[in-house]
């Protein structure tokens, strides 16, 4: 069976048997197509012919190319899963990636924005046209609620309640409601009434946030929005769309919110996932102390 057929069948397996998300399937298939290209060009073999040494050579090539530890670990996970699938289907006898091990990634605390940096970022969109109003609504809503990027771009019009000032989120088949502060709600209302209809044109969708072509906003599209306004704001930190979620939680914690309430708003199933934000707060406080105390210089 040709490589393209194997990958296509594997994609179907991920969708139908594993109920994998679009993002997971895209990530796995991207990793495997890169492996397929390497095996074909460098070792002149098909993907089902690869042995342990060939796969080791490939993972070593990723490291030499400067790929991060986390990227290499993710690629190896994709490879192991795929060859495990081939074993289950009887295409090969054993998984050649079984004994390969990924380097352990460093546990680096994510960046959070200061209150001033958040204000700078949120001030950047110019609400004088449909795009500017949409961008402002998305950024304000992210910081107001701390929802995930995947949840933000999946929101429907019916998920927002302007009467109860909250929004409904679904994650891993669980539903939660998160409050929205009045200023963010007013910008969101303006977007829904004035900006969204202009962006939609003739498209028919109930997705809340759409791009300039009227199609649902993508993760990549929102990433570009955040990076664009980060540059305009002159923020030097290496931030991502998820930085607003981290900052939301850290700032609530700094201002006295209890950990259980933050856990519910973030949609964490385990409170230990929320407690790590205390490390961010302590690190931030330490940096402020070092920078501002007259005897700490």
Task: Name a few traits of the molecule.
DNA polymerase, domain 1, 60% helix, 2 domains, single chain, 13 helices, hpI Integrase, Chain A, 297 residues, 3 strands, mainly alpha
Give the biggest sheet: 3 strands, antiparallel
Uncertain residue ranges: none
User: Which architecture of the largest domain does the CATH hierarchy give at level 2?
Assistant: Orthogonal Bundle
- Rounded radius of gyration (Å): 23 Å
Mean pLDDT: 87
CATH class of the largest domain: Mainly Alpha
Tally of helical segments: 13
**How many angstroms does the end-to-end distance come to?**
66 Å
Helix and strand string, N-terminal first?
Answer: HHHHHHHEEEHHHHHH
**What oligomeric state do these chains adopt?**
single chain
**Number of folding domains?**
2
Please summarize what this structure is.
The protein is mainly alpha-helical. The protein has 13 helices and 3 strands; from the N terminus they run αααααααβββαααααα. The chain folds into 2 domains: 86 residues, DNA polymerase, domain 1; 178 residues, hpI Integrase, Chain A (Orthogonal Bundle), CATH 1.10.443.10.
Ordered list of secondary-structure elements with their pairings:
Elements: H1 3-16, H2 22-43, H3 52-64, H4 69-88, H5 115-123, H6 130-145, H7 149-154, E1 160-161, E2 166-171, E3 174-179, H8 182-200, H9 219-233, H10 241-254, H11 259-266, H12 271-275, H13 277-292
Antiparallel strand pairs: 1-2, 2-3
Helix pairs in contact: 1-2, 2-4, 5-6, 5-9, 6-8, 6-10, 10-13
